[in-house]
Design a protein that fits this description.
Keywords: Isomerase, RNA-binding. With about 325 residues, the chain is α+β, with helices and mostly antiparallel strands. Helix content is about 20%, strand content about 25%.
Length: about 325
């Protein structure tokens, strides 16, 4: 819709709500803040921005999420399972929970099919208890609760960091020092609401420990990382912040890194064409929420990431 002179100075969210008619201003505001609005083709994420006469505004409304996810028979690699919990090796490409754009075909849908009759109920609803998430294109170890008791205990363990998690990541360049900490509060990017960034004001404290497992000259490095906090996109944001973004990251790798010049053309082209972020949740350790037994699980690198590393070595 195109703004007219009489709309000048109105809040953008009010203008869009009035023009659409079927959405409340609060709903429009929420959609804007999560990246569904544009002005003249550019992202519009500030609901209070004054309307500009002559500009074209567009608001895309995502499809609603089904109230109750359906059970779907999706293969899972199960590392451990009992009546209280299940540990899986999540493949890259599998979304954890239904959301706009991914209404089904998720880990939750798969778990409903696999263990639906065993789910005692979380919050009164027969569903798996998601206590942590991995991004769609991140692979590796995840634990999911099957009972309310396990859900409460595991949620507390993740909240208090009473567990151990390590990731493997292939980044551009060679971090210096080879082992260290990355510390910086993480919050929403001021202009791109779909991205997170290190911020100087606001945000949530975040700390990442890293070790260099293998260096490929100065062009790339395989890192082992351990999270002291658990913020959205934490590893991806922190590595990008120090100038060593993940290979293949579609959100935080904004241009060809200067470190690419240290690699052969073949290797550089191979890394640049890798279709997802090169990040894998390698290990997860925690105490069983009922027995108290110490449990530890690991998942080897997925085939695509292992082949990528082998190709760099060749």
């Amino acid at each position: 819709m195109q703004a007219q002179p009489e709309h000048a100075g109105q809040r953008a969210d009010r203008f869009l709500a009035d023009a659409i008619g079927s959405l409340s201003r609060s709903r429009v505001k929420s959609l804007m803040e999560t990246g569904w609005a544009t002005r003249d083709g550019q992202p519009l994420t500030e609901p209070a921005e004054p309307v500009r006469p002559g500009s074209h505004y567009r608001l895309k409304v995502p499809p609603p999420i089904p109230a109750k996810p359906i059970a779907q028979d999706i293969p899972l690699e199960i590392l451990f399972e009992d009546r209280h919990l299940i540990v899986i090796n999540k493949p890259a490409g599998l979304v954890v929970h239904p959301a706009p754009g991914n209404a089904d075909g998720t880990l939750v849908n798969a778990l409903l099919a696999h263990a639906g009759e065993e789910l005692e109920g979380i919050g009164g609803e027969a569903r798996p208890g998601i206590v942590h998430r991995l991004d769609k294109d991140t692979s590796g170890v995840m634990v999911v609760a099957k009972t309310e008791r396990a859900h409460h205990a595991l949620s507390e363990a993740f909240a208090t960091r009473d567990l151990s998690r390590e990731y493997l990541a292939l980044c551009w360049g060679l971090p210096s020092p080879a082992e260290g900490d990355i510390e910086g509060a993480i919050g929403r990017h001021p202009t791109d609401r779909k991205r997170m960034t290190v911020v100087t004001k606001g945000g949530k404290h975040a700390l990442t420990h890293y070790w260099t497992e293998r260096a490929f000259g100065t062009g790339a490095a395989l890192l082992r990382l351990k999270l002291a906090t658990g913020r959205t996109h934490q590893i991806r944001v922190h590595l990008s912040h120090i100038g060593h973004p993940l290979v293949g990251d579609p959100v935080y790798l904004r241009r060809i890194p200067s470190a690419a010049s240290a690699l052969s053309k073949t290797t550089k082209d191979t890394l640049l064409s890798f279709p997802r972020q090169a990040l894998h949740a390698a290990t997860l350790g925690f105490r069983h929420p009922v027995s108290g037994e110490a449990l530890a699980f690991s998942a080897k690198l997925p085939e695509d990431l292992q082949m990528l590393l082998d190709g760099i070595q060749a």
